[in-house]
Amino acid sequence: MPKIERSESKQIIIGKDVFTPYLFEDKIQNRVKELGEEISKDYQGKTPVFIGVLNGAFIFLTDLIKNITIDCEIDFFKLSSYGDAKISSGKVTMLKELNCDVTGRDIIIVEDIVDSGLSIKFIEELMQEHKPASMKVASLLVKPDSLRYNLKIHYIGFNIPSKFVIGYGLDYAQKYRNLRTIYALNE
User: Fold this and answer.
1) pLDDT in tens, the chain (187 residues)
2) Separation of first and last alpha carbons in the chain
3) Residue 73, Cβ neighbours under 10 Å: how many?
4) Cβ–Cβ under 8 Å, residues 59 and 169
5) pTM for this entry
């Protein structure tokens, strides 16, 4: 396992990869609060089901739910398209299915990051079988330049360039999710 070295410049070095701060905790929290307020307003009088996509979305979903002021439910999918790589394999595998019935329900899919859009496309096709009343997507990060599918992301925290990022739920080989700041790989 590569050792993380933290220098005084707040860079993170993992092996030969150098990551620098990209989005600081206070900026992330302010945006998540705004998204929570917007979703609460949009779903006033309804009880949506928030479906987090594991593992990455759990921190974003936790903070988002703290800012939701309406009744809601929570469930999780677990998908895999990256494994331990920095680039998607191009194939989505379902590792954990939903525990709740979403037929006729308003659902909000919660992602940490939408890169190519492959996972969201997979989820949209899967959800069509369950016939929800509505389905929207909330993602902390979206890489518009990397999207390969025509998708509607309804609630976006931040649009970012096509950089590899870690922290705040985003991982590198399943590690570094616990960083409060999002770091971008220097290229």
Assistant:
1) 445 544 434 899 988 999 999 999 999 999 999 999 999 999 999 999 999 988 889 999 999 999 999 999 999 988 776 555 555 556 767 666 666 788 899 999 999 999 888 888 888 888 888 899 999 999 999 999 988 888 899 999 999 999 999 999 999 988 899 999 999 999 8
2) 22
3) 13
4) yes
5) 0.86
Q: Does the annotation count 17 as an active-site position?
A: no
- The ranges assigned to domains in the chain are 48-181
Q: Which residues, listed in sequence order, are joined to residue 128 by a DSSP beta bridge?
A: none
- How, if at all, do strands 4-6 and 12-14 pair? antiparallel
* Given the residues 17, 115, 145, 171, the one annotated as active site: 115
> How would DSSP label each residue in the chain?
-PPEEE-TT--EEETTEEEEEEE-HHHHHHHHHHHHHHHHHHTTT---EEEEEETTTHHHHHHHHHT--S--EEEEEEEES-TTSSS--S--EEEE--SS--TT-EEEEEEEEESSSHHHHHHHHHHHHH--SEEEEEEEEE-GGG--S----SEEEEE--S--EEBTTB-BTTB-TT-SSEEEE--
Specify the fold of 48-181.
Rossmann fold (3.40.50)
